[in-house]
Amino acid sequence: MEYYRFTIKVAEAQREMALAFMSELPFDTFEETEEGLEAYLPEADYGPRLQAQLDAIIQQLGLSYQREVVPYQNWNAVWEASFEPIQVGQFCGLRATFHPEMPGVQHEIVIDPEMAFGTGHHATTYMMIQAMEQEQMQDAAVFDYGCGTGVLAILAAKMGAAEIDAVDIEDSAFERTQANALRNGAPQLKAYLGDLSVVPKRSYDIILANINRNVILDSLPALYERLEAGGILLVSGILAADQALVEQSAAAQGFKKSGSWRREDWCCLRFSK
To answer: Quick one: which H or E segment has residue 210?
Structure first.
């Protein structure tokens, strides 16, 4: 199967932001280069809609790129070369199967090297893990909204959550979440493919939403309804410049801000109901 390679010129200071935006598109792999990023996309997934979405991101961030067709290669090797482990203090370590064990962390999560998500969202994932460390997960009902590889849902399981639902609109995310849950011994994790409507209607003690500003803003009413009284909503994938907007929208919905984190150009927010 042939792939398209998008070579994107982007300054180092903008790379996390660019990765965050582009990870919402169905790229299989991201690889950092001296001049920016290379993003790989199966030829079958390319079309006018994706091109328009990518062009909008490029224009918004003031970037430039080139597109070329490349023959099949060992994409796991490409992914392995670009992915780096994440360690959040002594609380949690996130690594792939080809990395050595991470001694000294309370919770270690091992993800499937066949996943298709590259190196994006490190800052937002890091903050969500920081925020989760402060929460009481034992016997809780948890919902991971936009689960990606299932990392946050798996961490909730390791922290003692009794019931965990996770959902994502991408086939690959759904499949990887299932595989990673099995790999990490999280049988209480149930994954769903689709948007919020496919998840059984019930209430949760804690909702995790590491997605993006627009999805969070659009989903606040539904998330409020699905949260128990006194429950906690943790959100990230939000640029620091958009923090006030999200806080105002959450307050209008009835949420109360009860914590915040900042890393690079990103923020993570804690709300209670």
So the answer is: strand 204-210
- What does the angle CA 69 – CA 170 – CA 204 come to, to the nearest 5 degrees? 155
Q: Average pLDDT, stretch 140-167?
A: 96
> β-strand 204-210 against 141-145: which pairing, if any?
parallel
CA distance 95 to 104: 14
At residue 214, what is the residue type? Answer: N
DSSP-derived letter for residue 201 is P
Q: What is the dihedral of CA 126, 127, 130, 135, to 10 degrees?
A: -130
* Greatest extent of the chain over all pairs of C-alpha atoms, in Å: 53
Domain chopping of the chain, boundaries: 3-79, 135-272
- Give dist(CA 211, CA 17) in Å, integer: 13
* Strand ranges inside 163-203, DSSP E: 163-168, 189-193
**Has domain 135-272 been given CATH number 3.40.50.150?**
yes
- Residue 106 DSSP symbol: S
Instruction: Specify the pLDDT at position 115.
Output: 46
Q: Kindly report, residue by residue over 195-217, the tens digit of the pLDDT.
A: 999 999 999 999 999 988 888 99
Question: What is the pLDDT averaged over residues 87-91?
Answer: 94
Which residue, chain included where needed, has tokens 């699905």?
226
Same fold, 3-79 and 135-272: no
CATH architecture of 3-79: 2-Layer Sandwich (3.30)
| 73 Cβ contact list (under 8 Å, min separation 6) | none
**Cβ within 8 Å of residue 49, ≥6 positions away:** none
> DSSP per residue over 148-162, as a string?
TTSHHHHHHHHTT-S
